[in-house]
Amino acid sequence: MSSSNDRVPDEELRPTETKGYKVGEKKSVAEYSQLDANDESLNRWKASLGITGEGGSAGDPSKPKLSLHSLALESTSAPGGKVQLDLSNLTQVQLDEVKKSPLTIKEGVEYNVAISFTVGQEVLSGLKYIHVVKRAGVTVDKLEQMIGSYGPREEPYVKRFATEEAPSGMLARSGNNTVRSRVIDDDNNVYADFTWVFKIAKEW
Fold first, then answer.
1. What is the mean pLDDT of each run of 10 residues along the chain (204 residues)?
2. Positions of the region Disordered (predicted)?
3. So what's the pLDDT on residue 17?
4. Domain enclosing residue 116, as ranges
5. How far, in Å, CA of 167 to CA of 170, rounded?
6. Residues 104, 56: Cα–Cα separation, whole Å
7. What whole-number distance in Å separates Cα of residue 13 and Cα of residue 15?
8. Domains in the chain: how many in total?
């Protein structure tokens, strides 16, 4: 079982600041659609966000800005290619249950974290995924990866992050790892924040 010492404090989830980097001005879908209509590279970027010269997809103000649907640990050796945590419409009670049901990773395998999400209202730019892993009260890993910029659409986006290698050995298999994950943007707006648990085993 994970202990109370495995709680990840907010300060450990702060993104790394890039010296000299200035956060750009946020714009609505309509404002983006009117930007430099004759700039071909900008038009390709806007098209990748689902924005067209006619105003594009304005999004639905009744929907959350970002909805996280799942987190998966993907590996070619895993049954079905991945083990997955369903995060759709979870209540606090269900989130607490997630902490009691560790995902299992086979020791020594290469895997990557992947998240599935939808954007509901407006273009979200500078999104990052950060997670901190604690074991027996000690921070053992931190992952910080760019997600990028995404516009509103019904179909979920899937973002896969850098490949990692699961630890091996009896010590690695002897306890659970508690992970606090967060999706954040350049302005430090938090769109998702949840805790989950995984364990290392001899087999999936």
1. 62 70 55 58 59 55 91 95 89 79 95 95 92 92 93 94 94 92 92 94 96
2. 1-27
3. 65
4. 60-201
5. 10
6. 42
7. 6
8. 2
| Residues 116 and 170 reside in one and the same domain | yes
Question: Does residue 112 belong to any structural domain of this protein?
Answer: yes
Q: Is residue 69 part of a domain?
A: yes
Position 17 in a domain? no
Class of residue 45 by CB neighbours under 10 A (exposed 0-12, middle 13-18, buried 19+): middle
- What are the tokens at 77? 């050796």
Q: Is 156 exposed, middle or buried (0-12, 13-18, 19+ CB in 10 A)?
A: middle
How far apart are the C-alpha atoms of 154 and 120, rounded to whole Å? Answer: 8
Domain check: are 47 and 68 in the same one?
no
Question: How many other C-beta atoms lie within 10 A of the C-beta of residue 10?
Answer: 10
Angle at 60 between CA 66 and CA 64, to 5 degrees: 25
**Per-residue model confidence (pLDDT) at position 57:** 53
pLDDT in the model for residue 187? 87
Q: What is the pLDDT, as a whole number, of residue 54?
A: 47
